[in-house]
Design brief:
The protein contains 13 helices and six strands. By secondary structure, the chain is of the alpha+beta class. It folds into three domains: 137 residues, P-loop containing nucleotide triphosphate hydrolases (Rossmann fold, 3-Layer(aba) Sandwich); 103 residues, no CATH class; 133 residues. Strands 2-1-3-4-5-6 form a six-stranded antiparallel β-sheet. Helix 6 packs antiparallel against helix 13, helix 7 packs antiparallel against helix 12 and helix 9 packs antiparallel against helix 11.
Length: 411
Amino acid sequence: MQLTELLFQKVKDLPGEGQLSLKSGYVAVVSKASSLRVALTAPVCPAPDDPKRLADGAGPTRVGVGLVSGEGKSYRLLRELGGSRQLLRFDAATKKFAEVTEDQLEIDSFLRVECGMPPGDAYTGFFVLEINELPSLRGKAAAAASEAYVDQPRVRALKEELEMTKKFEATQDRLFKVAQRLHDLKVLAQNLQDAETDLAAVQDELKRSPWSPEEIKDLTAKASRVKEDLKRRDDALADISKKRQKAAQTLPPPESVWTSGWFYGGLLLGIGIDALAFVLRRPPMAGFALVPFLAPLIVILRWIEGDEADKQAATYAQELKERELKIKKDYEAEQAQLKSAMRTAKVDSPVDLLAMFKDRELVVKRREVALAKLQKLKLEPEVSRLAVEIPLLETEKAKLEDQVHQTGFSR
């Protein structure tokens, strides 16, 4: 972490207000003001005794430091004693510092994550000692102490107890802030996970109907008229069945020539007349034989007529069969898309499919709401730091709890 400046206003032992630029590297500031080091540490590591060591009683005391983040951006951290801290960021467009946050946990998180701030004890140890701690003044302090007897062990014990109490209170305060910050981040992480889960569930539900609006419209029409289509098919099949039965009843099978008495009787009678004419040697008599021959001729003609009718009936029956197959095939082809949609949607009937299409509109609205909720959560600035900050806070919380437990008492 790099400090770039020190800002102060109405600080004890310092001018009314001022600004010190701090270059990179080691910086030595020569001053008799014992409050200088506290002014440097108070904005970053607030302590309970800061007001006592900084306030001059002339008005509100303010201190601040300039910071450079890991990304090279300039920030200011300001603190008014008795109030809260403010984190400001330099805006290159307006050439001014704009407020980022006043949340103390967010500020502490920013210092750790973005600026790489070390622990508080290590941070305060970076700065020079106060003037009364310089080696040249230690002898004077010892001489002054020898002038009057002071129970040094007792004073030292009281100071140690006071420091331990202050340290414990600071640890307790820090533990509370860390726990609160960790709780808030975990709630945010849980909300983010719940939003992602809700969106995934809605997406899975929409996968049951992977059709375009035009396809859904066509499937809805088919599912709505499924009963009418079935009745139309059954009526057509029933009509074909009636025609087939009627054709079978109106067309008797043709009589066989070989079983007809007229055929044999007429044939034998004609042959007999021809034989008689031959025996009697009377050729004109043979002309009368033509009359009996008409009977077998008529039988043959009737058989030919019946055979032709039978062929026509067979052709008609074949046409009826083909028409029946075509009706069934057309119906199955028309219903194939509907049945496929029912299998995809995992429903048992067209009614259930229509209900699913109706519910799909609600599911689409739910998806829009879930997506908007997830996008809104992702816009939270803390979301990008969840993966880094939560483990750090958990580690720090465990250490602080261990310190509190080792102290042996609670506030």
